[in-house]
Amino acid sequence: MGSIYRSEHMSLCQIFLQTDSAYQCVAELGELGLAQFLDLNEEMNSYQRKFVNEVRRCDEMDRKLRYIEDEITKDLIHIPDYDEHIPAPQPKHMGEMEANFEKLEEELLQINANSATLKKNHIQLLEMKNVLEKVNTLLDSNHKREAAMSISEAARGEAGPFTLGVRNDFDKERRDDTELKFVTGVINRNKVIAFERFLWRMCRGKVFVRTADILENTDVFSHKIESKAVFILFFSGEQLRTRVKKICSGFHATVYNTPENAMERGKLHQQIEAQVGDMQSVIQQTLDYRAKILGAASQNLRKWGIMLLKLKSIFHTLNMFSVDVTQKCLIAECWVPNVDIGLVREALQQGTVHSGSSVPAILNEMETHKYPPTYFKLNKFTQGFQNIVDAYGIANYREVNPAPWTIISFPFLFAVMFGDAGHGIIMLLAALALVVFEKKLIAAKIKDEIFNTFFGGRYVILLMGIFAIYTAGRILTNTTSWKKMDYQGYLIGNELDLTFPPEIAFDHSYGPYPFGLDPVWNIAKNRLNFLNPMKMKTSIILGISQMAFGIMLSLMNYTHNRSLVDIFFVFIPQCLFLGCIFVYLCIQVIMKWIFFYVNPAFVFGHLYPGANCAPSLLIGLINMFMMKSRDPQFIINYGTGSKNVTIDGKVYLYDDTDQCYLQQWYPQQGLVEKILLLVAVISIPVMLFVKPFYIRWRHSRGLPIDMGHGHGDDNAEFSFGDVMVYQAIHTIEFALGCISHTASYLRLWALSLAHAQLSDVLWSMVLSLALKMNGWAGAAAISIIFYCFFSVLSVFILILMEGLSAFLHALRLHWVEFMSKFYGGTGIQFEPFSFTKIIRVYEGLDQ
C-alpha cells in the first residue's frame, strides 16, 4: 500500500538536450509518460517560440486532415480504429506528410467542384426537360385565349374581384394571341402562391400565370427531396419581360428560354434526353472515383491522425524549453517520480542513440521550493476508487490518501443502505460480466459516456455487489434467532397472532440465524418496531467509528509534517471532544444491548426490573448536557416493595421509581458525565486559540510557518487575523460537524428501510397478485407478470435507481463526513507528457 497510501516522492529535474537529439528524446519520454514538463517561456507568446513554424505546419496538416475526415463522414464511410503502436514520425518526414495531405485535399476539392458543376448542370437539364414537357400543355389555345382575355381586362381596369360592370365576352376588346410573350421556368413548390400574388400586384394583373407540378425528383444524386413546379408567364410588351425576370430572380426561380415553335421544342427535348443520360453516367463515375479515394483514405485516417498528434505534441513540448545563448542546447525542467528517474534516464539515452547524436542528454535533480504535483501509482482495480477521491479534490503532496480505506468503506456503507442479497447477486453478475470481458470491451473502444462511466467503475460495482450480499446476510439483519413455535406464533381462538414478544421468542442456545434475518419476521406485525431501533443504533455506531478513524488518519498527516502543535492542540482535543460525547454514546448503545435485556437481572450491582426500565439513551444524552439530577437506581424500597421479580429462582421485592428509564444505570454516572462534558467543553478553546498564537510566536522570531492553506502560501504575507479566522472556522466546523455528521449517518438506516419497503411494495402489489391465482391462468400470469413487470421494475427501480441513490449517499458520507476530518484535497494533479493519454483523448475515450 506504500505508493497508494501516500503520493510518490517527486523531484524537479533539469534536462540538457542537444538540438539535434531533443525531438527524439522528447518522443521517448512521451512513450514513457513519466515526466511533467514546466513551461519555461511563459512570458513569450506563441509566435516568439523556437518551433512556431513547425507548429504552424502541423496545424495546417491538422486542418487538411479534418477536411478529409469531414468528407469521409459526409459519405457515411466507416473509419476503422488503429490499434497498433505507431512511433512518432521524424521531422524529416513532415514534408512527405504535407505533400500527401495536400495532394489528397486538392484532389477532393477538384472532384467536389467538378461533381457540383455536373450535378448543377444535370439538375438544369432535368428541369429544362420537364419545362419542355409541361409547356406543350400550358401553351395550347385555351390557355393563351384565357391569358389574352385576362390581360385585356386588366388593361381596361376590369380585372380582379372588384371589377365594375360585367359585360358580355363578345362585347370586350380582346388582344390578339400572337401579341403575347411568355417566360418559362422552375420554382420551388412552396413559393408558388406567394409568387402568383406578387406578380399580380406588381404587374397590375397584366401577367397571366399558370403552373404545373414536377412529379419526378430533379436532384437525383442528393438525399434531399425538394418539390418543384414549372411556371409559364404570359404578358404583352418587352418592359414587362424585364420586370418579370427581376421578380423571378427575387424568388430564386430559374428561367429557361423555350422555343415558341412546337417542332423546335420537340427537337430540343430529344437532345436534352440524350444529354441527361450521358451526364448521369459521368456523374456516377465521378462519385465512384471519389468514394474510392475516400475509402482508401478512411483506412489510414486514424493512423495519420495519431502520427500528426504525436508530431504536434512533441513540438508543443519543445516550445516549453528554454534555449541557451549558443542556440545549440535546449534546457527543460520537469517533475519526475523519484522511483522512475532511472527509467527517464534510459529513455533519454535511447532517444540520443536513435537520433544519431554523439552528445548524450544530461538529467540533474534540482533543489526547489516549488510545490510538487501529486502522483499515485494505480492499477485497473484501484483506479476507480481513486477517481471517487479525486472527484472531491486532488490530495496534497504526501498527504494520506483516502483511497485505500475507501476500497473497503465505500462498498460497505453502500451495502448497508442497499443491503439486499438478491439484488446484490444481480449487481455482482453484471460487474463480473464487465470484468470477464474487459479486454474485448477495451478493444471495442466504446465511446458512450454512460457506458464508460460504468465500465471504469466495474471493480467498484463488483465490491458493491459482494458487500450487498454480505451485509444483507451478516450485518444489519444477523442479530437474532427465534424459537420453533407452534404455528410460528400464538393461537388466539382460531386466528394467528404474529406479534412476537422477544422475552419468550429469543433462543440463546440456538444462536444467530444462519443467514440474514429469520424469514418469519416478514409476517410479524412488530417487524418494524424490532428492526428500526436496531438499524438506527447500528448506523450511529458505524458513523462515529468512521469519523473517529478519520481523525486518527489526521494524526498520520501531523506526524508526517512533524507538527507537534497540531498533534497536541488539534488532534488530541478533537479526540477528547468526539470521545467524551459521541464515543461515549456508542459505548452506552453497546452496553444497553449487552446488559439491559427484556428479563430482570442485576446490572452493575443494582436490580434491573425489566424492559420498562431500559435506559433511554437520547433523553439521557440531553440530561447529560443539562446536568440534570437523577436517582442512582431504577427502583426504591428494595426488599420491602409491593412488586416482585424472580431472578435465578429467588424473589425480590421493590417499587418502581418515577420514569425509571431516565435514571442512572451505572454507579457514579452523573459524576462521570459531568467530567466528560467538562473535558469536551475545554477542548474547544484549546483547538481555537493555541495554534494561532503559536504561529504568531514563530513568526515574531523569524521562524518558518505553515499557513495551512495548502500549496502556494509560502510567500503569503502573515496576518494573525487571517490565521485566527481560519482556525475559528475549522474549530466551529469540527464541533458542529460532529453533531450534524452523526445525524447524517442516519441515512444508512433511512435508505435501508426505504429499500426494504420498496421491495415489499413491489412484491405485494405485483408478483403476489399472480401467486394468488390457481391453475393454468396462475402459471401464465406468473410468467407474464414476472418477466414483463416484476423483473423490469426490480432492475430499473430497485437496482438502478435505488443503487444510484445509495451510491450518491455513500459518496457524500465519504466526502463530507469522513474525508473532511483529515483530507485537504487542494493538491496539484500530476499530468505527465504521455502519448497514451493524448491518444485516448483524441479517440474520445477520455476527457
UniProtKB/TrEMBL annotation:
It is a multi-pass membrane protein. GO terms for molecular function: ATPase binding; proton-transporting ATPase activity, rotational mechanism. It is found in: Membrane. The chain crosses the membrane at residues 412-437, 458-477, 538-556, 568-595, 607-626, 675-695, 776-801. It comes from the Eukaryota. GO terms for biological process: vacuolar acidification. It holds the Pfam family V_ATPase_I. GO terms for cellular component: plasma membrane; vacuolar proton-transporting V-type ATPase, V0 domain. Its main location: membrane. Residues 94-121 form a coiled coil. Keywords: Coiled coil, Hydrogen ion transport, Ion transport, Membrane, Transmembrane, Transmembrane helix, Transport. Essential component of the vacuolar proton pump (V-ATPase), a multimeric enzyme that catalyzes the translocation of protons across the membranes. Required for assembly and activity of the V-ATPase. Belongs to the V-ATPase 116 kDa subunit family. PANTHER family: V-TYPE PROTON ATPASE 116 KDA SUBUNIT A 3, VACUOLAR PROTON ATPASES. This is V-type proton ATPase subunit a.
